[in-house]
Amino acid sequence: MTLRALIIDDDPHIADVVSDIVSSLGHASDAVGCQDDARRKLATAAYDYFVLDLEIPVRAERSLARLQNGMNLLSELVASRLGPVIVVTGFGNNGPDQGVACVKLGAADYIAKPFDRGGRTLDGAILEALRKSGRLPVRSAAQQQSSPPRPFVGGEIQLQKKRLVVCGVEVPIAPLMHRILSVLSEKNAAGKYAAFSGDELAEHDGVRCSRGQNGVSDTIHQLRKRITASVLEEANISVGDLDIIRSKGLGYRIADSVNVVIGACRPVLVTSEPENVTNDVTVGEGDVTNHVTDRTGNVTNDIDLNDRQAWAMSLIRNGQEVRVSMLVARFKCSARTAKRDLADLKELGLVRFVGSPRTGHYVLT
Known about the structure:
Blueprint (H helix, E strand, L loop, with lengths): L3 E5 L3 H13 L3 E5 L2 H10 L4 E5 L13 H14 L4 E5 L6 H10 L3 E4 L9 H11 L17 E2 L3 E5 L3 E4 L2 E4 L2 H10 L13 H6 L8 H24 L1 E2 L6 E2 L6 E2 L3 E5 L14 E5 L6 E6 L5 E5 L3 H11 L6 H8 L3 H13 L3 E4 L6 E4 L1
Parallel strand pairs: 1-2, 1-3, 3-4, 4-5, 6-10, 7-13
Antiparallel strand pairs: 7-8, 8-9, 11-12, 14-15, 15-16, 17-18
Helix pairs in contact: 1-8, 10-11
């Protein structure tokens, strides 16, 4: 199930930046700009966590934005126990006393804008808050990697519509990130990746970033941080800020050591009933669509399966019981990644879970 955030900030630019960060984590979000709108959203929708700017008005365009409004709403959210609250605020209001006051009220974390100041990122604060609240699994000792990380040496990365695959690790990307990477993946007449300034990327027909070069810079910055965190966590490989997207001298460009493959082909689902499964590659959007059919031969879903999901589906269709531990052992991925893969298959209606949470397994629907 996709986690959902409610972003509460009366600055549309900041709300867009936070929305991109939330999207890069693979989460969904809604945004409101005042206390009253937040309360109305809470009455009609459920959220897993909240990103709250303290300086907000009570009513949109009808009252003064002030810190105490945000503090009052923070108290309400904490008392409701609906989910962790990550507080964000500007440079003028980020003294230590303010942070202590928020934590005393029950805020999960307190982050000053910009969100990566002092090495602390909003991405990291969100993930930590979700783990502490039980909405994401806590990393085990084995996942925390006892050996030193290996350096990133380049190689093939796959650019798909909603994800970037680096060192076998899937990194969710927002639409703007996908557009920027698609343009940067273009090569010039000499077979080299083309270089673009921030302004050129923002105005490029394939990007069209409404926030200009600042929007491009923010997006690339967040993507770098997300790649670094994800690949280190799941593959124990250290990816530097300039290892994939360079930004000195000529402008933004893909590093020479990297080979970008757009819409890399997925394997055909293996089954004992080959007439029931087809693998059709769609050209244009860069994704592969696996047409998965049921036992009667009727098409049930058009979906984009990754390698682990394709392997799991092939076993399940052959009557084998599939568990999270099997994907972890086969693909050397984290338990969190394997759970997400199987949960996605369940959400698509392809499989269902039977048995107890500890000993159960997945079967065809």
